[in-house]
Design brief:
The protein has about 290 residues and is an alpha/beta fold. About 40% of the residues lie in helices and about 15% in strands. The chain has 10 helices and 7 strands.
């Protein structure tokens, strides 16, 4: 596949979003805006984006961001269509631990095991908390159903992380330590923000040593975040197989995410692992 200017290698994108979202009056703005500028409504649009940047394969999940809990569920069919219509794309099903989303989640879980689906995805930006200590009985039941599905199908479970609020990395620590030895957990954005990176680098590497099945990507990583993580991996000799390149397009920017890894002061071997080998090792059985 031809490489665009500024790109040194073809990559596999382990975190990107498909589907159209509406403009929204975020944060009290007087009129609806669409800050991502563009999205990928259908498979053909998504493949066009992949071709533009020399992306060989991608893991796609519902595009989301507006405060409508049902919206990302509505894109599960788009994800499934993409994952079965192109051998370059695989998908994650959108689920929720929230009792209000029970019927949507049960419907999504019915599709576990179907062709092209290789994991689950959720966020706590739309409500709830990842800390099991905060769950009521209904929430725990839904969470256990999701984790059980991941264990049964050898799926990876993607969780959005970001600084502050329910998505702060502190809230994920108890969940990882309760479920992370039987299920593969991918912490998207590597904790999100300065505080998240500083908290997570030592914790993440210790989790790997302790046998937890944790993974991450460096999308949205602040300046030093990706650099520090990768340097510490080489220095400590652990965790090199747990970092997956992710663009988070269209909510981030492919070139900036690519160069966080390509420009890091680490070995060519580690860069190759992040850009493709780790994804192939993790998801190869599902491709």
């Amino acid at each position: 596949m031809p490489l665009p200017e500024g790109i040194k290698r073809n990559v596999i994108d382990g975190h990107s979003h498909i589907g159209e979202i509406e403009a929204w009056p975020f944060y009290g703005i007087d009129y609806p805006v669409k800050p991502i500028v563009y999205d990928f409504p259908r498979t053909k649009d998504f493949i066009k984006f992949m071709d533009k940047y020399g992306i060989e394969r991608s893991l796609a999940m519902s595009n989301y961001g507006i405060p409508k809990p049902e919206q990302p569920f509505s894109l599960n069919p788009v994800v499934m269509e993409a994952a079965t219509s192109s051998d370059r794309i695989r998908g994650l099903l959108w689920v929720s631990f929230l009792p209000r989303d029970r019927e949507h989640t049960l419907e999504a879980l019915k599709h576990c095991g179907e062709a092209g689906i290789i994991g689950l995805k959720t966020t706590f930006l739309l409500g709830g908390n990842p800390n099991p200590a905060e769950w009521d009985e209904e929430t725990k039941q839904l969470a256990d159903m999701c984790f059980d599905a991941c264990e049964k199908h050898d799926y990876v479970f993607h969780f959005h992380t970001s600084p502050g609020g329910a998505s702060d990395i502190n809230n994920f620590i108890p969940m990882v330590e309760e479920y992370g030895k039987r299920c593969k957990i991918h912490l998207v954005h590597f904790g999100g923000g300065v505080s998240g990176h500083i908290k997570l680098v030592p914790k993440f590497l210790q989790w790997v040593r302790d046998g937890y099945k944790v993974y991450t990507d460096t999308s949205w990583a602040v300046g030093f975040g990706a650099r520090w993580l990768l340097v510490e991996i080489e220095k400590q000799g652990v965790g090199g197989d747990r970092v997956i390149f992710g663009s988070d397009e269209p909510w981030s920017d492919f070139m900036s995410e690519y160069w966080k890894v390509e420009g890091a002061p680490v070995s060519e071997e580690l860069k190759r692992m992040v850009f493709r080998d780790n994804f192939e090792k993790l998801h190869g059985a599902h491709w």
